[in-house]
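Q: What residues go here?
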């Protein structure tokens, strides 16, 4: 009689990959559900011109996220100090980057 797999049994690499993919897919599905609920709740808070306001809020948040994900550095044109790409002002002299 064949026994069921036990957690201590060796797992083949292709099975590990399949399990990892399944876990990742489940996590993405959960994240999508959380995001959908959040968007619905935000939309419900808007009264007049809800569609336009929701689109505007979405655009602002997307622009913010894109800005926060910038990598690398920027050299200040005033003092030549290197600043992280996410900075808006030079940390050294306060100049707008
Ligand atoms: Zn500077």
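A:
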């Amino acid at each position: 009689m064949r026994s069921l797999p036990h957690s201590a049994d060796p797992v083949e690499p292709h099975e590990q990959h399949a399990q990892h993919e399944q876990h990742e897919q489940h996590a993405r599905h959960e994240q999508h559900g959380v995001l959908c609920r959040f968007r619905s709740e935000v939309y419900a808070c808007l009264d007049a011109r809800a569609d336009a306001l929701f689109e505007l809020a979405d655009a602002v948040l997307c622009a913010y996220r894109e800005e926060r994900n910038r990598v690398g550095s920027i050299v200040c044109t005033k003092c030549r100090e290197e600043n992280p790409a996410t900075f808006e002002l030079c940390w050294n002299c306060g100049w707008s980057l």
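A: Context that may help when evaluating the design: The pocket of zinc ion is lined by residues 76, 78-79, 81, 90, 92-93, 95 (CB under 6 Å). The two ends are 71 Å apart (CA to CA).
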